[in-house]
């Protein structure tokens, strides 16, 4: 039976850009297998549900096949099934920042101006 480390698998199916990022996410408890936090050295068997917290979104994937080497983006859907809910993906669209234009040379905002800016930011979210 083929086994692979979770950090290597997360990197291979392009959930994380580097294996180090995948390993760090596991160490911080942001990667769960069947709702249990895992260490980077945890070996996958297959047909498991992997949950990855990348704030503000929580992604959920089902493992279809195990893979040891990095895949091209086109091949990834053959190896994982994305179970992430639409509500979670909508969080990416909502996360727009509100920017207040300040005149050049105006310096830092005063306490009163800062409160006004914060009030505008909370109204837009």
What does this structure look like?
This protein has 125 residues and is α+β, with helices and mostly antiparallel strands. The protein folds into two domains: 4-94, RNA-binding S4 domain (Structural Genomics Hypothetical 15.5 Kd Protein In mrcA-pckA Intergenic Region, Chain A, Roll), CATH 3.10.290; 95-125. 31% of the residues lie in helices and 20% in strands. The protein has four helices and seven strands, in the order βααββββββαα. It has helices spanning 6-12, 19-27, 86-94, 111-124, and strands spanning 4-5, 31-33, 36-37, 43-44, 49-54, 57-63, 80-82. The strands form two sheets. Strands 3-2-5-6-7 form a five-stranded antiparallel sheet. Strand 5 (49-54) and strand 6 form a beta hairpin. Helix 1 (6-12) crosses helix 2.
CATH H-level homologous superfamily name of the largest domain: RNA-binding S4 domain
Distance between the termini: 49 Å
- The mean pLDDT is 88
Question: From the coordinates shown, what is the CATH architecture of the largest domain?
Answer: Roll
**Which class of secondary structure composition applies to the elements?**
alpha+beta
CATH class of the largest domain: Alpha Beta
The CATH topology annotation of the largest domain reads as Structural Genomics Hypothetical 15.5 Kd Protein In mrcA-pckA Intergenic Region, Chain A
Helical content band = 25-40%
* Integer tally of domains: 2
Tell me, what's the shape? elongated
From the alpha carbons, calculate the radius of gyration and give it in angstroms.
20 Å
Order of secondary-structure elements: EHHEEEEEEHH
Number of helices: 4
What order do the strands of the largest sheet run in, or round the barrel if closed? 3-2-5-6-7
**Unreliable stretches:** none
> What percent of residues are in strands?
15-25%
Strand segment tally: 7
Biggest sheet: strands, sense, closure?
5 strands, antiparallel
């Amino acid at each position: 039976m083929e086994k692979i480390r979770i950090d290597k698998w997360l990197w291979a199916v392009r959930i994380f850009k580097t294996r180090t990022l995948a390993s760090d996410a596991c160490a911080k408890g942001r990667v769960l297998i069947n709702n249990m936090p895992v260490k980077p050295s945890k070996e996958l068997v297959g047909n498991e549900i992997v949950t990855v917290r990348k704030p503000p979104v929580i992604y959920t994937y089902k493992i279809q096949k195990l893979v040891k080497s990095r895949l091209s983006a086109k091949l990834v859907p053959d190896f994982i099934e994305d179970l992430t809910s639409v509500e979670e993906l909508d969080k990416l669209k909502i996360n727009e920042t509100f920017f207040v234009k300040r005149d050049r040379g105006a310096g830092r905002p005063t306490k009163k101006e800062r409160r006004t800016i914060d009030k505008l930011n909370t109204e837009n979210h």
